Amino acid sequence: DYKSVTMGEEAHFYGNAEVYWRDVPPTVDGMLGGYGSISNIDLNGSKAFLKKLIGEGEGKTGTMCALDCGAGIGRITKRLLLPLFQTVDLVDVTQEFLDQARTYLGEESKRVGHYFCTGLQDFVPEPGRYDVIWIQWVIGHLTDEHLVKFLERCQGALRPGGIVVIKDNVAYEGVVPDDVDSSVCRDLQIVRSLVAKAGLRIVHQEQQMDFPKEIYQVHTLALR
Q1: What's the CA gap between 65 and 169, in Å, rounded?
Q2: Would you say 181 is a known binding-site residue?
Q3: Which residues does the record give as S-adenosyl-L-methionine binding sites (predicted)?
């Protein structure tokens, strides 16, 4: 029957990704697939994006607690989230990365609330906990159905006025599979349709500029 085949494929898709990441060195370069040099450009773009949405005033988002999804060793937590939020939680499928994060984050790691070791397809964030849920370079590891369900759970995990941010590669057209790390890259229209299916709307959107020409376009979407 069709269902058991796709469940088998699904297990394969997630299992292969876990195996891939298990062999990746727990470094910034490892997190970025050899593109460690773009980390500063990436983080500066993210900071400018987030600063438009957080703080005091009408329609702004608080700075109590953030969640870093697919956090790896905490590259984004260290340079983007901990400087802006009182508490940050990390979730990643690879325990070795989370172990390394404690060292990598240094003294500031005392403001980490939780380290969750699980895939996002299985992760249930605590309702009403987060001002910002940051999901970067990881949605390609979720099936469409699991992405929609995860975004729905994220919506329930937001504090009043909170936002979900997706920052990810965008394909030119359709869905492009990557067999190396067992992921997919979707075009912007598909990402938008999955966001809408999850009952979220895009409140702000930007393209990350100044990345090397040979890599995918990267777009950042703030969702409520």
Answers
A1: 26
A2: no
A3: 70, 75, 92-94, 120-121, 136
